[in-house]
Amino acid sequence: MSTVTLNIGPKTYTVACADGEEAHIEGLGAMIAEKYALLGASRAPLEAQNLVFAALFLADELDQAKKQIAAIPEPDTSE
Predict the structure, then answer these.
(1) 50 Cβ contact list (under 8 Å, min separation 6)
(2) Stretch 27-56: mean pLDDT
């Protein structure tokens, strides 16, 4: 078991992960930090609210990507 330190906004979070997963978790943390930074000056006074907003940004991107994938027609394999 390993630990990774994530810097998101003004806080630091230590997260446990499986050995070998450190880079992946750091990448995910960087994505969250990027969305957190989008809040700019409109950050809420409670840190949990800011993290929820960052998560909503990511969830919206995921939702849009799923819709785009669902809209791709299946290839015709009847030939």
Answers:
(1) 9, 36, 39, 43, 44
(2) 90
Contact 29, 6 (CB under 8 A): yes
3-state secondary structure of 10: coil
- Which helix (H) or strand (E) element contains residue 15? strand 11-17
Cα–Cα distance between 75 and 71 in angstroms, integer?
Answer: 12
3-state helix, strand, coil in the chain (%, to 5): 55, 20, 25
pTM: 0.78
Residue pLDDT, tens place only, 61-74? 999 999 999 999 98
Which of 52, 49, 54 has its CA nearest to residue 30? 54
